[in-house]
Amino acid sequence: MDLTGNTGAARQALLTMWTIRRFEEAVDDLFARGLMHGTMHLSIGQEAVPVGACLALADGDYITSTHRGHGHCIARGARLDAMMAELLAKETGYCRGRGGSMHIADVATGNLGANGIVAGGVPIAAGAGLAIRMRGGPRVVVSFFGDGAVNEGAWHEGVNLAAIWDLPVVFVCENNHYGMSMPVARAFRVERLAERAAAYGIPGETVDGNDPQAVHDAVGKAVARARSGAGPSFVEAVTYRWKGHSKSDKNLYRTREEIERWRERDPIARFETRCALTEAELAEVRDQARDRVREAIRIANAAPDAAADSLTDAVYAS
Amino acid sequence: MDLTGNTGAARQALLTMWTIRRFEEAVDDLFARGLMHGTMHLSIGQEAVPVGACLALADGDYITSTHRGHGHCIARGARLDAMMAELLAKETGYCRGRGGSMHIADVATGNLGANGIVAGGVPIAAGAGLAIRMRGGPRVVVSFFGDGAVNEGAWHEGVNLAAIWDLPVVFVCENNHYGMSMPVARAFRVERLAERAAAYGIPGETVDGNDPQAVHDAVGKAVARARSGAGPSFVEAVTYRWKGHSKSDKNLYRTREEIERWRERDPIARFETRCALTEAELAEVRDQARDRVREAIRIANAAPDAAADSLTDAVYAS
Amino acid sequence: MTAVLPEQTGVAERTLTYAEAVREALAQAMAADDRVFVLGEDVGAYGGAFGVTGDLVHRFGEERVRDTPISELGIVGAAVGAALAGMRPIVEIQFSDFTAQAMDQIANQAAKIHFMLGGAASVPMVLRAPGGSGTGAAAQHSQSLEAWFAHVPGLKVVMPATPADAKGLLLAAIDDPNPVVVLEHKLLYKQSGPVPEAAARVPLGEAAVRRAGADLTIVATGVMVSRSLEAADRLAAQGIEASVLDPRTLVPLDGQAIVDSVRATGRALLVQEAPKTGGFMAEIAATIAESRAFGFLRAPIGRLCGLDVPIPYAPQLERAAVPQVDDIVREASELVRRW
Amino acid sequence: MTAVLPEQTGVAERTLTYAEAVREALAQAMAADDRVFVLGEDVGAYGGAFGVTGDLVHRFGEERVRDTPISELGIVGAAVGAALAGMRPIVEIQFSDFTAQAMDQIANQAAKIHFMLGGAASVPMVLRAPGGSGTGAAAQHSQSLEAWFAHVPGLKVVMPATPADAKGLLLAAIDDPNPVVVLEHKLLYKQSGPVPEAAARVPLGEAAVRRAGADLTIVATGVMVSRSLEAADRLAAQGIEASVLDPRTLVPLDGQAIVDSVRATGRALLVQEAPKTGGFMAEIAATIAESRAFGFLRAPIGRLCGLDVPIPYAPQLERAAVPQVDDIVREASELVRRW
Ligand SMILES: Cc1ncc(C[n+]2csc(CCOP(=O)(O)OP(=O)(O)O)c2C)c(N)n1
Ligand SMILES: Cc1ncc(C[n+]2csc(CCOP(=O)(O)OP(=O)(O)O)c2C)c(N)n1
Ligand SMILES: [Mg+2]
Ligand SMILES: [Mg+2]
Q1: Is the preceding peptide bond at B232 cis, omega within 30 degrees of 0?
Q2: Torsion angle, alpha carbons of C119, C122, C127, C131, to 10
Q3: Are C169 and C277 members of one domain?
Q4: Which of A80, A254, D84, D226 is 20 to 30 A from residue A169's alpha carbon, by CA?
């Protein structure tokens, strides 16, 4: 799909990117003002990856997400009010206030969950792919994870299972250059993480993760391959996180200049200059994103707090 | 080192291979006669790998071994009587009867231990390499593991640590075509396991694991590289296990013909035809191996059983 | 509390080994429900490290009796994902010791997803693994790790001690919409007993009174159940009548049955194979000590457990490391005679 | 049993936070012994996820304060190997929940190697990890997993509850020739208290009586120690005098101190943050129930523990999931008034 030339697609991609950006800016602000608690991992600067990837998916497809998962959840079509309610620890939140940011999930849109465990979602994605294979049908799974996750044993084992069983899984690495403070250059002895795909006999490709079109093309190709039964692929999307890793981050491991350089490669601003929308249309999309987030905050704020009374009942399914 | 042409080296290589063979045949026999208990993993048919590899090592170098570890232990220079005593659950065994076959170790010869956990020794080897690096000096570590181990998360993490820190470790894969019953062809989507080395940015090489010279050359090169500070390497030695995986194996997953084909490639018989020793010298070596194993059994049998009285004292070092 | 003794069930039975009983449960569950499948190392052609899956691959095919590479974390994670996506996976881990490899997917994922997602998803899967010593397999292949799992909210934990329970509890575990860890015992695999032909469930959370007696209550799990029964016979010859209670499931625990029995006998001897410190019998001791039974206790609560040592290789050391019938007889009679 | 109260030590002290006390121990140990080094995720420039390592990388360099990739199993394994080869590694795991990833190297390797090798080798290493809830980090970042480690023979397990102990116990752990798991608590990192300037060891295996009282014994670990002390002050206002006992190390456990105290007071309330079922307080209850203190018990042994739930995200739910000061006061006074 041509995301820049096709105005419908461009509008959708841009609206989703802006929605993620505005949602996370709002979260950042609520947190700074002490109105939100816990910890938050913001994906500001990385919006092109979930948006480009999820536009390659259809109803019934699955994703697995990460600790930095707001963007995946939104790009997959989750309701902003239920997301915001979750972060505000409300009973109407996606997880009834039990999960928070690190476990946010909208199962209805195939999101099997954010995950507080680095690489925790990778074998789970392989398993969802296995279920699809056993059930039959054309569904696929996209598994999102960061560069840091690629050194976990869970990643290795999950990718290998998908590879040897030709499972319909697309592994999407959001390489934002750091796993917390650890630079990719120190954690790996390969130039591109996509080089690791060969170890599992699957295709690997590195793309500009700040360009939703590039991500979309690569993931779209991998999704088509998976749907056809040819097995998994690995897409490395190179991007950058503007904010600290989490609230405890003092940015001691990288320079202001580096952050500034990447801000100049803002995926949203670049897309706006490239896409076929007029200045008026762009303004409309921006307003729409802002309004959607405001509305979500309003609804979420009005909702009741998560109730502690039924804690133990909630542990087991029945 | 030229193992075939140099008669001293040839004698040493052959004697060690024969010793491993005879030792394990004796173990097999003791087991069948109910004189040994537990389970045993025999490396008969794979003798060229530990022998070729360990001839590249020097005093003070380390190895980590596996559940199929008798060969490594012998090739590194352990005492046969203390090994046999361990398997016979004697107080004079290397582990005082507490470890048995799966934990056999001769720390004096740098053997950090067999390991009942597949790939368990791999991160341990990286750690020993790290200690060497921090202490300084030219020591190296050889980490032995099977093909099956290469799919464990521990393997992935251990190899990556060694790679990014340029640690003096040589990873030696004994690819005997099966992880228990799982054929390499079904557990991997790569032709050669050595292809995985590239994922960690280290050299990988596949050699004939039934030829001690080929193993020795590849491991020797890797050891030299490690000693020079250039970091780890991966050597895949292709070989075959003649016996069942362990005592519970009914060989349902492979054919008689396959086993027969590999028996014809017996690493010992091939080496005998290739090496510079005379028929008389060969016979002498064979007798010597037989006698050494007999003597070990005799000494071990005469030793006292492991004593149960001090069990709890043995848990913590003091 | 239900005592499922053969004569009470009134259904057609034959004698099967414990391993055969497990296999029959797997076969019946797979035949009844397409979503059920088995995965694990060497479960296919090899038939399982302990022969439990046997010929199932020939009956249900390689897709549903799925050999995996040696990747415990990946395998359990794949089961979690498959369960989330509508399947009913049954994972076999060759030795329960290797659950250590998979602990993240077991404890941080499978156990918690239902709760963390506010009930929006569930993880109906079973993890089967043999525990226990007695085979000379040494420290990394002989552990009894039930206490680890019982301490993780979100998991159910089952320890069948008879062939009938091996089948019935496993079928109940497969039905359950939650992750269930079923800890089998290596020494029991070859033991025989009556097993119903039908796919009869043994409900999770109901203890079995294996023997009734007025002088003390022996609570035992796994292979310690049959050792305790043997000990009880010998104690009877000495004039001591022991109740032998098998909790069968640790989570949910039938605390009621334990408390009732101890209230009646006034004495408790808790027998487990796992090392004493932090073992599950501590939980049972604490359950008794905080309960209505407290006022009825005539003696300190006795624990007879494995030593706090890794399991050694040498047979005589291995035996010394865990309770034997003699030890149970000795401890029980001392408890009764001294108090 | 030693009560290490500041006035008794007689050494130079200043007020430090718990995190600073840990850092000082690390620094003093590294300065004193070249073999000691620290490795873990983000322990270098970042200073540790909770700021514990702080500026150590600037003082000791990147080799000895070693940032690692995100590979907990590999990191712990590397520590095991380094320890076997003569070093004294100290691993930091960012959240104790991620020890699940490394459980094989912790429980199957580090804990067992000394025994399995018949004493021929030892594994002198320390694994530090913060546990506990109260930061809104939800189910995968808030667990209290001490019971897992305490059940593994070969490990020692330490839970410092004060800044002084955070330093002194860590130094003792670094000296120890065995693998020691030191479970710190996130909520304690910013708490301040007197800490000796010298590298004074607090021996492993000695409980501390934090407060003496005749009416009941409260045994508490981790953050529950200060909550219990606060509760004890409030109980005193009601006329109830509680002893508060902090075991400090779970393995080895100072059972003597606990039994002596309960024998004197006749009542025990055991307080832990971890979920109740299978938690370490079950072991302490069982220790009391099988001991000489049994005959002196005037009340059932009370346990006040975390609920058997994963830790929820919402602050009010998170608070409800683990004991608070109010709960301790309520349970303690009920125990005293009813019995
Ligand atoms: C198993 C595990 N180890 C460590 C952590 C702590 N942690 C959370 S996010 C993170 C960095 C992850 O890096 P990456 O995968 O690149 O994702 P990013 O944060 O850059 O999006 C770390 C170390 C964790 N949550 N889980
Ligand atoms: C973590 C772990 N998983 C499974 C096993 C059971 N097991 C022991 S050896 C083995 C096969 C190992 O295959 P490979 O690494 O190729 O070594 P080989 O036996 O062929 O020498 C298996 C599955 C184990 N010991 N440890
Ligand atoms: Mg990253
Ligand atoms: Mg193999």
Answers
A1: no
A2: 10
A3: no
A4: A80
Is the model's pLDDT at A274 over the cut of 90?
A: yes
Contacts of D16 (CB under 8 A, 6+ apart): D24, D163, D167, D192, D193, D195
Catalytic residue (one of C24, C72, C92, C206): C72
Residue D273 belongs to some domain of the structure? yes
Q: Is the CB of B147 under 6 A from ligand 2?
A: yes
Residues C223, C328 within the same domain: yes
Give the HSE-up count for residue C264: Cα atoms under 13 Å, Cβ half-sphere.
Answer: 16
Instruction: State mean pLDDT over A24-40.
Output: 95
The full 3-state SS of chain B, as one line of letters, equals CCCCCCHHHHHHHHHHHHHHHHHHHHHHHHHHCCCCCCCCCCCCCCCHHHHHHHCCCCCCCEEECCCCCHHHHHHCCCCHHHHHHHHCCECCCCCCCCCCHHHCCCHHHCECCCCCCCCCHHHHHHHHHHHHHHHCCCCCEEEEEECHHHHCHHHHHHHHHHHHCCCCEEEEEEECCEECCEEHHHHCCCCCHHHHHHHHCCCEEEEECCCHHHHHHHHHHHHHHHHCCCCCEEEEEECCCCCCCCCCCCCCCCCHHHHHHHHCCCHHHHHHHHCCCCHHHHHHHHHHHHHHHHHHHHHHHHCCECCCCCCHHHCCCC
Q: Omega before C177 cis (within 30°)?
A: no
Do C140 and C110 lie in one domain? The reply is yes
Q: D281 and D180, same structural domain?
A: no
* Residues D283, D157 share a domain: no
The token pair that represents C24 in the structure block: 């029959």
pLDDT band at C218 (very low <50, low <70, confident <90, very high): very high
Ligand 2 nearest atom to the CA of residue B41, by list position: 19
- C120 neighbourhood in chain A, CB within 8 Å: 94-95, 105, 107
User: Is residue D4, in this structure, part of any structural domain at all?
Assistant: no
Per residue in A130-172, pLDDT (tens digit) is: 999 999 999 999 999 999 999 999 999 999 999 999 999 999 9
Asked whether residue D287 falls in the same domain as residue D169, the answer is no
Of C196, C217, C243, which residue is a domain's last? C196
Chain A positions touching C82 (Cβ under 8 A) are: 127-128, 130-131, 134
Phi/psi region, residue A180 (left: phi>0; alpha: psi -120 to 50; beta: rest), is: left
Residue C169 belongs to some domain of the structure: yes
Q: How far is ligand 1, taken at its centre, from the CA of residue D98, in Å?
A: 11
D202 within some domain: no
Q: Are B161 and B131 in contact (CB under 8 A)?
A: no
Task: Provide the domain limits for residue C237.
Answer: 208-338
Over 80: is that where the pLDDT of D127 sits? yes
Residue C248: DSSP 8-state: S
Answer yes or no: D141 catalytic: yes
Q: Which residue of A has its CA nearest to C87?
A: A131
Among D35, D36, D63, D73, the residue to mutate for chain B (most B Cβ within 10 A): D73
What DSSP character marks residue C244? Answer: E
- Phi and psi at residue C155, to the nearest 5°: -95, 145
Tell me how many domains chain D contains: 2
Q: Which CATH class is domain A7-300?
A: alpha beta
Q: Is D98 in the pocket of ligand 1 (CB under 6 A)?
A: yes
Q: Where are the domains of chain B?
A: 7-300
**Residues D33 and D155 occupy one common structural domain:** yes
User: ipTM of this complex > 0.90?
Assistant: yes
Q: Give yes or no for residue D291 CB within 6 A of ligand 1.
A: no
Examine the fold and report which residue of D196, D231, D246 is the final residue of a domain before the chain moves on: D196
- Determine whether the interchain pair D115/C274 forms a contact, defined as Cβ–Cβ distance below 8 Å: no
C141 is catalytic: yes
Nearest partner of D49 among A181, C190, B286, judged by Cα: A181
Give the model's pLDDT for residue D10.
63
Q: What share of chain A is helix, strand, coil (3-state, %, to 5)?
A: 50, 10, 40
Tokens 């010394």 — which residue?
C320
